Amino acid sequence: MPKQIFDQDEFLELSDKASECRVKRLPEKVKLKLRTDRYLYTLVTNTADAEAILEQVRCRVVEARPGAEEI
What we know:
The chain is of the alpha/beta class and 71 residues long. The protein is built from two helices and five strands, in the order βαβββαβ.
């Protein structure tokens, strides 16, 4: 089941338990998705904040759909 997170600190704590962090880049926002054994946690943020968060994430970072064209 997916869950949305609104707190960046909680997202970073959950990254300890996550197997990977998927990054989905959209024109005006970035979605960061943590895959754990039980849930898929999503944090929606802007590009600048996303880069700062990704430097602190403690799991593997995977770009979702690299090279895919934006519609």
